Amino acid sequence: MKILRLLPFFLALPLAAQQQRVALTPPMGWNSWNHFATRVTEADVRGAADAIAASGMKDAGYVYVNIDDAWEGKRDAQGVIHSNEKFPDMKALGDYIHSKGLKFGIYSSPGPQTCARYEGSYQHEEQDAKTWAEWGVDYVKYDLCSFRPIMNAAAAKDPEHAEEIKFKLMKEAYDKMSKALKATGRPIVLSLCQYGWNDVWTWGPEVGGNLWRTTDDIRDSYLSMSQIGFSQAGLSKYAGPGHWNDPDMLEIGNGLMTAEEYRTHMSLWCLLAAPLLAGNDLSKMTDETKSILLNKEAIALDQDPLGKQGDRVWAKGALEVWAKPLSNGKVAVGLFNRSLEAAPVSFKLSDVGAKSGAKARDLWAHKDLGALKDSYTSTIPAHGVVLLKLE
Ligand code: GLA
After folding, report:
1. What is the 21 CA–ligand 1 centroid distance (Å)?
2. Which atom of ligand 1 is closest in space to residue 115's alpha carbon?
């Protein structure tokens, strides 16, 4: 009897264990969308892989080389998906990426078309998962897009239960791809992209998501980046090893924010234990961009093995303090100034879970600040940040 009662637990174990195998820390790498959008070519992707290996990014932890939308071609008579003329040989591209010690990611939609109107995986889920596994794919971003009309059509037949029906269909679509990917036997990260609808953080893991977008698309502007980043307050309890909140890819190095603003972007994403997917042209990075993307002390916060997302601990007007618990009782603290003028920001050590006497290090100045007493104050530049580690 007892054994029978335990049976569901044993049956569930391999699936859960498998889901936990990938993305034990937030995925790091590069994605083509923010810079190349639909213009992306195989040469751009190879160039990104080369740059990751040569620039020190690989050593800093960036491993996924992800093609976003616009690689897709047509299906053949057997329904097998092919890449378009910009991507002559996906298997060879995957091999090239792997030869650099990196991992290969692509993109699709549960609908018949992707957001940029390329071929989606609707009714070809198992077949596509197999094809991708044959190409050596390690990461799939699955973007809702044209699945929405399918949800809406089903809901229109039963207006009284419209929301329930749409929600159920959406969850089933993600679950279906998750199962199809698992059936390939290849460990593949599944990235859910449905812009945070229906509080995806509450059910993302249930449908096999290793990460899920929490908002609409980011743009290369302080307004967009800060609205998305600071709106993540309250979501920390939903993240952990194998399943992460995703406030979208990085814009660092794309040119429309100042260095101070990009440091805010990087600091906030690291405190959020967010996926760190660079979204710039890696073959043309300034030293300033490199100093931000390659700040190993900031990256270490993001990748801390405890896997806890940080959260807001204090805010007053445009000033905010965020803290992220780290392994071995350490803690990361970000002091942010969202206003257009420099301003002092303070925090009490007790408010961030640290003890009086904790030693602080400034992770952008790369300087030890010595032991702190009960509180700390620093003048933060406009749109800027001071990022600390306390131990
Ligand atoms: C959506 C996603 C973006 C990107 C594009 C591609 O807008 O949210 O991240 O993948 O589609 O078309």
Report:
1. 26
2. 12
Active site includes 304? Answer: no
Distance 169 CA to ligand 1 centre (A): 20
Domain boundary at 255, 283, 302, which?
A: 302
**Between the CA of residue 2 and those of 5, 9, 10, what are the distances in Å?**
5, 12, 12
In which domain, by residue range, is 315 found?
A: 311-390
**Integer angstrom CA distances of residue 52 from 45, 229, 282:** 11, 25, 7
pLDDT in tens, 64-95: 999 999 999 999 999 999 999 999 999 999 99
Q: pLDDT digits over 103-125, tens only?
A: 999 999 999 999 999 999 999 99
299: DSSP letter? H
Ligand 1 mean position, distance from CA 152 (Å): 20
- For residue 317, the 8-state DSSP code is T
Q: Looking up tokens 């199809």, which residue turns up?
A: 180
Q: How far apart are CA 2 and CA 59, in angstroms?
A: 49
CATH number at residue 48: 3.20.20.70
Domain end call among 268, 302, 336: 302
User: Are residues 175 and 200 located together in one domain of the fold?
Assistant: yes
3-state secondary structure of 280: coil
Which atom of ligand 1 lies closest to the CA of 68?
Answer: 10
**Which pTM was predicted?**
0.95
> 246: Cβ below 6 Å to ligand 1?
no
Same domain, 109 and 73: yes
